[in-house]
Every structure is written in C-alpha cells, then in structure tokens.
Amino acid sequence: MGEYLLRCPRCGSLQPPSALGCANDDSLLRTEYVARRLTLRDDLPGLWKFFDWLPVKEPLRGVGEKPVTFRSEGLARELGLSRLYISFSGYWPERGARMATCSFKDLEAPPTVERLMERKDGQALVVASAGNTARAFAQAASAAGVPLVLVVPSSGKSRLWTTVPPSESICVVSVTGDYTEAIDLAGRLAGEAGFVGEGGARNVARRDGMGVVVLDAALAMGALPDHYFQAVGSGTGGIAAWEASLRLIGDGRFGSSLPRLHIAQNSPCAPLYAAWTGSAAPQGPCPGGMYDEVLYNRKPPYAVPGGVRDALEETAGTVCSISNGEASVAHQLFEEAEEIDILPAAAVAVAALQRAAASGSVEKKDLILLNITGGGVSRAKEELDMFMLRSDIEAEPSAHTSASEYGLLAEIEEILGRRGPR
C-alpha cells in the first residue's frame, strides 16, 4: 500500500490520514510516503503502477489508466526544440494511451474515489466540474458503485459522457451560471449530512494522482525536465507537478533541480495571470468567448500556503495569458505535427510553449515536458461506446440559500434513493 503521513508544510504538524486541511493554519497538506524511492508496481495496471506514491490502501479495479510520455518529433521540429517530450493524457491506442474519458482528470478520480471508499461511511460524493472532471468521476464512481452528485454549469452539460453505462447512483445537477457557481453550490451540498465533498486542491489524492504525469515522464526521460508546460484553471495541476518533482529529487536518481513551471491561462479570464503579474483580475462570471472555459476558476488556490504562488516562486515559474487566436494556431499546429486531436485546453499549453520557444525563454537543447491534458476524443468517438449523462435537476440557487432551504437536498436524496441504496 501507499503508506504515508500527512504533514503541514507550514507548521510541520502531522494531520489525520483523511484530513483536507491543517488544524493550525490554511495550508495545503502534503503526503510523505514511507517509500522514498520511486518503484513501479509491474503487477498493477495503469496509474496504479505508481501505487507506493498514491494515498490509498488498495487500487480501484476497473479504472485508472496512466498517461504516455514520448519524445516529440513533429512538434519539436516545428518549434526548433531537440529535447521536447510530451505527456499525453487521452485516447491514442497507437501510443498506448487509453484514458477513456480523454482527459488527465482520469488520474485524479480513481484515487479520490478509492480514498473515499476506504472511509467506509457510505456518504455520497459531491463533485463540481466544468465537464472533464465530471466524466472522470462518473466513470470511477460507476466502477466503484459509489453514489455521486455532479454539479456542473449549464454550459458543461454537453461534456458529460462516459464510455461505460453510468451507475444508477449518479445525480447530475446543472447550475445556471459559471463554474464558480457550481463550486459554491457543491460546497454547500457537501456540508449536509450524508454528503461529502471531494476536497478540490486540498485533497492529496487528487494532487498525487495528477503528479503521475511527472513521475511517468521522469522515468521516460531519465531525469526531471528543465521546463514543464501546462494549461490550468485552478492551478492544482501545477502544484501537483511541483510536489511530484520534490519527491523525485528526494529519490536521488532524477536530478537535484526543480523543473521551471510554465502555467498558461486563456485571456481575458485569467485570474492566476492577474494575481502573478499584479494586473487587473476579471470580476464576476467570465464575459464569454474563451477558447476553453474549463480554464476559468474565479477562486484558485493561489495565495494559500503550499499553493500556486509558492509553487511558482520555488520553481522560478511563469504564468502567461494566451489569446484565442494564439490557441487556435497552436491547436492546428499540434494536430498536424503529431497527428492526433487534442482538447482546447491542451492547445493553450501548446501556445505557451510556442511563445516561449519563439522568445528564447526556452532553448533548443533544454529538456522540456509538455503536458497535453486531454485528447483523442475523435478517436474515442469512433472506437468506444459513449453514454451521455442527462441533467436530473436544473438549479438557480442563491449564494445565500442553503441546499436544504432551497429544496435541492430533498430532490437529490429522492433521486439517489430511487435509483439505488446509499
């Protein structure tokens, strides 16, 4: 098992294994694994090969593919880079990538669901999502038989599908508004008896699952990269990459320098860029027209100890804001160069790398890891079954109304109770 302690990086105190925060301050807790060296479990499939560095007691059977890492030829040639590696999370059978929901959220959901199951308290899991996370959690919860409440903005409903028949114990609540409204409502639901939130950036299972990207890449490259590029909404993926890199440095076989984090957002709705550069932050819902709205989170874990700011400062990182035009050009460039379709968010990361290569921020000989956080949807649609998740409840909740007062709680409990026992 992945034996570990949970420690606060700020005060140094140890916290209970299921904790989502420090009792003394607001820090993001961090896992300290008994296994100090990275050892692959060849007897386990997918991401569970990294079991010793995942905060669970058992693998969740039936889900949990890992990304694939390969040395780029096509995109590297186009950008003039000699040591560019790509981590691909999606469906690309020729490369060995078989993430059915076509997103690196498939790395977060299985360990998070497994960690919840190990609590054995029978609570329904509440997850807020702009779409990609919902798919991954629906797939994992269906495999585990865990009751799940998905809270999504109305604009994200078209992204709700699975490649296995979804469990009857899934309730989808679509919210009028943006992702932040969905997060707020999910938070209020999670405070009700019988429900539990997945914890977002505070859940070490989510972060350590995403950290598998860097672990897999380090094994493929034989070292930690000099630069790491990813498009982000909350920035949790950047935190995960930083934490995984710290563990690999502790291992001693992959180098002693942290990769420089380059995180990208989509203008004009780029709160992390605004916070990092001191520019004006967008207020309220995004005005629309984003290349990919999943990259907009109004309340990212930026200033919290152990959060995005600390990750950027410790890695001498950068944040860039990518326009729709830049993303569109990069999208086409990648798909033509590498011959696989990618999600719009991943195109934003490609644009950030393209800009860095053109400006000289990265050099031809640098060892670079580009995280393609989703792709292969066109291939998946051709080769896999797809089941759309319908919206069970349309909600327009007030920020000052509790879930029980709004009447939403009773509706959800009725739906979950009607479909299957909790």
Shape: globular
Query: Percent of residues in beta strands?
Result: 15-25%
Q: If you average the pLDDT, what whole number results?
A: 92
The side-by-side strand order for the widest beta sheet comes to 4-5-16-13-14-15
Helix content: 25-40%
Low-confidence stretches: none
Please count the helical segments.
14
Structural class: alpha/beta
Query: Would you count the extended β strands for me?
Result: 18
**Main sheet: strands, sense, barrel:** 6 strands, mixed
C-alpha termini separation: 27 Å
Radius of gyration: 20 Å
Folded structure, characterized:
The protein has 422 residues and is an alpha/beta fold. Helices cover 34% and strands 17% of the residues. The chain has helices spanning 74-79, 109-117, 132-144, 179-190, 204-210, 212-221, 236-251, 271-277, 308-315, 324-338, 344-359, 377-383, 403-406, 408-419; strands at 4-7, 14-15, 30-33, 68-71, 84-88, 91-92, 97-98, 124-128, 148-153, 161-162, 170-175, 195-197, 227-231, 260-266, 318-322, 368-372, 387-388, 393-395. A six-stranded mixed β-sheet has the order 4-5-16-13-14-15, sandwiched between helices. Strands 12-8-9-11-18 form a five-stranded parallel β-sheet, with helices on both faces. It has a three-stranded antiparallel β-sheet with strand order 2-1-3, with no helix packed on it. Helix 5 packs across helix 7. It is globular and about 60 Å long. The model has no long low-confidence stretch (mean pLDDT 92).
Helix-strand blueprint:
Blueprint: E1 4-7, E2 14-15, E3 30-33, E4 68-71, H1 74-79, E5 84-88, E6 91-92, E7 97-98, H2 109-117, E8 124-128, H3 132-144, E9 148-153, E10 161-162, E11 170-175, H4 179-190, E12 195-197, H5 204-210, H6 212-221, E13 227-231, H7 236-251, E14 260-266, H8 271-277, H9 308-315, E15 318-322, H10 324-338, H11 344-359, E16 368-372, H12 377-383, E17 387-388, E18 393-395, H13 403-406, H14 408-419
Parallel strand pairs: 5-16, 8-9, 8-12, 9-11, 11-18, 13-14, 13-16, 14-15
Antiparallel strand pairs: 1-2, 1-3, 4-5, 6-7, 10-17
